[in-house]
Design brief:
Strands 5-9-8-6-10 form a 5-stranded mixed β-barrel, surrounded by 4 helices. It contains 9 helices and 10 strands. The protein is of the alpha/beta class.
Length: about 270
């Protein structure tokens, strides 16, 4: 401190990522330093959080393991299979923004160029969502990971072109959907009544734990990215309703996975 004034370095050190207006570069190491690029890795990659869905599809004839993602939590296999004459990679994402983003970064390092993610969410507006697939058009950044990739802001918007592709695929497949804002949170057990009401008043129709961060990374890495959600538990009534949260998407596994595959193919066609 000079003459009672903070130096530029001291100001920078005082602020957290939530207050800084610029992203510092470069990182000391990146995903290419920890992950080996794989020759002929499929350009399209699909991921979900449901172990049940991944187990079902990885056991199908023609599916084969092509890589592994490593962490202290264990090994996540990466598979590929042929769909409509195109090879598509798929794997189980880890829940929560930091872990999900780490996997995403490493999959990009392996060679993926287009990415589709889907998973369950908590419903904040049951009247709007009902049984529709949710198309996130923006996400409230109530997490931390996105702030390491893009400058602070209350929300982040999904890429309009990616949203259009998803809408067209949903329409062509005959699936009903609703577009809306989602709330990305880091604290699964701190979705309080006051916070839920606040987010609902802001227009959020769902709550999840990854969307804002994944949108930020895809923007930073310039990777075409699509995400869709399906409602699991309900937070829009006076009491919490678990509904089919503990089924982890298995009831409609084929529907969701095929939809993700179709999105991947459409991203190639529309790029």
């Amino acid at each position: 401190m000079l003459g009672g004034q903070l130096t530029e370095k001291e100001v920078f050190e005082l602020y957290t990522i939530f207050q800084r207006t610029e992203i510092s570069e470069p990182a000391l190491f990146g995903p290419s330093d920890t992950t080996q690029r794989i020759e002929n890795f499929p350009e399209i990659c699909v991921s979900t959080f449901s172990e049940n869905i991944i187990k079902k599809f990885s056991s199908l004839k023609g599916a084969e393991k092509i890589a592994e993602l490593y962490s202290a939590n264990g090994v996540l296999p990466v598979y590929k299979m042929e769909y409509k004459n195109r090879e598509i990679a798929f794997y189980r994402s880890m829940v929560g923004a930091p872990a999900c983003v780490s996997c995403f970064e490493e999959i990009i390092a392996m060679g993926a160029k287009k990415f589709v993610l889907f998973g369950s969410c908590g419903v904040l507006d049951d009247n709007k969502v009902q049984d529709h697939i949710i198309v996130p058009v923006s996400a409230v950044r109530d997490e931390g990971t996105s702030y390491h990739y893009i400058a602070p802001s209350p929300e982040i918007e999904a890429d309009p072109h990616s949203v259009q592709i998803l809408e067209k695929v949903l329409t062509d497949c005959g699936y009903s959907y609703v577009k809306g804002k989602t709330w990305t949170s880091d604290a699964i057990y701190r979705e309080t009544r006051a916070a839920i009401e606040e987010r609902r008043n802001e227009g959020c129709i769902a709550v999840e734990m990854e969307c804002a961060s994944m949108l930020a990374v895809s923007k930073y890495r310039q990777i075409p990215f699509i995400q869709f959600l399906y409602g699991a538990d309900n937070l829009s009534s006076d009491s919490w309703e678990i509904r089919d949260l503990n089924l982890y998407g298995l009831t409609n596994a084929e529907k969701y996975m095929v939809l993700a595959f179709e999105c991947g193919l459409a991203m190639e066609t529309e790029s």
